[in-house]
Design goal:
The protein is α+β, with helices and mostly antiparallel strands. The protein has 4 helices and 9 strands; from the N terminus they run ααββββαβββαββ. The strands form 2 sheets. Strands 3, 4, 6, 8 and 9 form a 5-stranded antiparallel sheet that branches. The chain has a 4-stranded antiparallel sheet with strand order 1-2-7-5. A hairpin with a 5-residue loop joins strand 8 and strand 9.
Length: 186
Amino acid sequence: MLRPLAKSIASAWSRAANNPERLISLAALIVASGALCVSLWQINIGKQHNVLSVRPFLIVTPHLAGAGGKNGLYLSNEGIGLGVLTSLSVSVSGKTYNGLGVNKWPNILRDIGLNPLCFSIAWPARLAALRPGAEIEILGLSKNTQPGCEAALVSFLTRKDIAIELHYTSLYGDGHVFSGDASMNL
């Protein structure tokens, strides 16, 4: 079986050697096919680069700097692309509050025994977007503080049973998730 195959290959080679145009055409076809493969590979690399060049990196960070400093929970975009929020959930002692739009903080604060009037609160709207480098306070101390409000904020930020999960997308629509807690590591 190998002998007839070897004869046919030798015959094809001798015909090509007698006709150099065919050999040149075959070489051009091989070079063009290789160039097409390299071009497709480069397009794929370029697309991956473009996706990474606009990737957001949203995080929720607790800050407790003391009087006059940043105190509260802050949502920030540490990436280099716009982050579009698709879902937010806060779990406290096993109870989960989720959704965008309607502010959940008053219910969360009441359920854990804290006065909602002590806090300035912000809950993201549906499909809200956060630009790169932006940081917004989502829970902080109210300007109209009452006695015990500072202690309430410290109490909230030092709880170990608060979990936050934030789903967001980039401009390309690829989904990402931040999962963390609201607790200061004290």
